[in-house]
Design a protein that fits this description.
Blueprint lengths: L5 H23 L2 H17 L1 H5 L4 H26 L14 H10 L3 H12 L4 H8 L3 H18 L11
Helix pairs in contact: 1-2, 1-4, 2-4, 6-8, 7-8
C-alpha cells in the first residue's frame, strides 16, 4: 500500500492514541476533556494524513497538533468565560490525594504556562522543542516554566501530607 492510506492512519492512531491521551489528560485535567482533545487531534491528523505520513516525526507532529488545539480551545473558552463571568470561584478541595492536588495546581496555571510545564517536564522535551511547538522564544519557555514551577511549589508546599507511604 502506498504511504498515506487509511490503513496507515489506523495503525498510527492505534499505536499513538494512548500517549496522546495521557498528554491531553495532563493538559485538560479531566478524562472527558482529554478524550475530546484526543479525538479532535486524531480527526485533524486524519484530515491531513498524507502530509503527516510523510513527516520525519509523525508523533511530534501529532503532539504539536494536540498542544495547539488545546491552546486554541482554551482561548475560546476564556473569551466565553469572560463574557459570562461567575462571581465566586469554585471551592478548592481541602483533603485531596496527591494526584488530585497536582491536577488542581496545574489547573490554576494559565493554559500556555500549563502546556509548557507538561511538555517540558512530563513529556521531557527540550526547551528548544517546546519553544518551536508553541511558537515562542526559548527565553519565554525558560521564564514561564520558572514562574509556573514557583507557583506549583507554593501551591504544593504541603502536598507531601497527602502522599501515601509505600
Amino acid at each position: 500500500m502506498p504511504p498515506g492510506t487509511e490503513h496507515d492512519f489506523e495503525a498510527f492512531a492505534r499505536a499513538g492514541q494512548r500517549k496522546l491521551y495521557r498528554t491531553a489528560y495532563l493538559l485538560c485535567g479531566n478524562a472527558d476533556g482529554a478524550r475530546d482533545l484526543t479525538q479532535t487531534t486524531l480527526a485533524k491528523l486524519f484530515q491531513h494524513w498524507r502530509r503527516v505520513s510523510t513527516a520525519d516525526h509523525p508523533d511530534a507532529y501529532a503532539r504539536t497538533v494536540l498542544t495547539r488545539t488545546f491552546l486554541a480551545e482554551r482561548r475560546r473558552r476564556l473569551r466565553d468565560l469572560l463574557a459570562h463571568r461567575r462571581a465566586d470561584p469554585p471551592p478548592r478541595p481541602e483533603h485531596a490525594d496527591l494526584r488530585v492536588t497536582l491536577l488542581a495546581a496545574l489547573a490554576e496555571l494559565p493554559p500556555r504556562a500549563r502546556a509548557m510545564v507538561v511538555l517540558r517536564y512530563w513529556e521531557d522535551l527540550s526547551v528548544e522543542t517546546v519553544a518551536e511547538l508553541l511558537r515562542c522564544s526559548e527565553g519565554t519557555v525558560k521564564s514561564q516554566c520558572s514562574r509556573a514551577l514557583t507557583k506549583l511549589r507554593a501551591r504544593l508546599g504541603e502536598a507531601h501530607i497527602y502522599a501515601t507511604e509505600s
